[in-house]
Amino acid sequence: MTIGQLIPFGRSTRCALRPAAMTSSLIAMLLSAVCLVHPASAEGCTKSLEYILNNAGGQLSRPANAYQKLLRTCLQIITMGNVQDAFILKDGGIAVIPRSFTAMATARTLAAICQEFPMSTLRFATKREARKWLTEPRFVVLASSNSSPSCHELRGKQ
Fold first, then answer.
1. How would you classify the pairing of strands 15-17 and 122-124?
2. Nearest to 64 by CA among 32, 95, 91, 25
3. How far apart are CA 93 and CA 31, in angstroms?
4. Which H/E stretch holds residue 2?
5. What is the mean pLDDT of residues 111-134?
6. pLDDT at 143
7. Of 60, 90, 114, 137, which one has the greatest count of Cβ atoms within 10 A?
């Protein structure tokens, strides 16, 4: 950030950023904070967010604070028991690669995530998708969560 990006804010001594500078600064701070706090466990979350931000061409489909919230949610989902990795999807959902692909383990994981994040939309990977997603996160970002019901719908609160 340069001094040229700062403009006076009224008569106070505080300064405000121009909108374009503010968005890029917010994204840069967000990514650097994640890399410092969650260096090993945040692989899928940060890789998918970086792909979305780098390939948006300046046109993000959601406001910056929505991506910030998705990243926080994704990082918390990674810490859950049956979650091997998680990714942010371009459409605003979160893709999850479970450690165990059994129906019971997936149901428990889904219930735990929906309990903690009731407004989330999740997409669980199949074994085949998991292999592809772990080697190339860009495939995950482009996956759709539109066919997956949101936690809000699963809990019967439509």
1. unpaired
2. 25
3. 19
4. none
5. 91
6. 84
7. 137
With 90 as the cut, is the pLDDT of residue 90 above it? no
Of the ranges 6-20, 26-40, 86-100, 101-115, which one carries the lowest mean pLDDT score?
6-20
- Per-residue pLDDT reduced to its tens digit, 6-45: 333 343 334 444 455 545 554 545 444 444 444 444 478 9
Helix, strand, coil share (%) of the chain residues, nearest 5: 50, 15, 35
On whether the CB atoms of residues 141 and 88 are closer than 8 A, the answer is yes
pTM for this one?
Answer: 0.68
Sort strands 94-98 and 122-124 into parallel, antiparallel or unpaired: parallel
Two tokens, residue 99? 């450690």
73-79 — which CB contacts under 8 Å span 24+ positions?
Answer: 73/117, 73/120, 74/42, 74/44, 74/45, 74/48, 74/49, 75/34, 75/38, 75/41, 75/42, 75/45, 76/116, 76/117, 77/113, 77/117, 78/38, 78/41, 78/42, 78/44, 78/45, 79/41
Half-sphere exposure at residue 13, Cβ-oriented, CA atoms within 13 angstroms = 0
Token pair recorded at residue 106? 């997936």
CA–CA distance, 139 with 89 (Å, rounded to integer): 10
CB atoms within 10 A of CB 103: 8
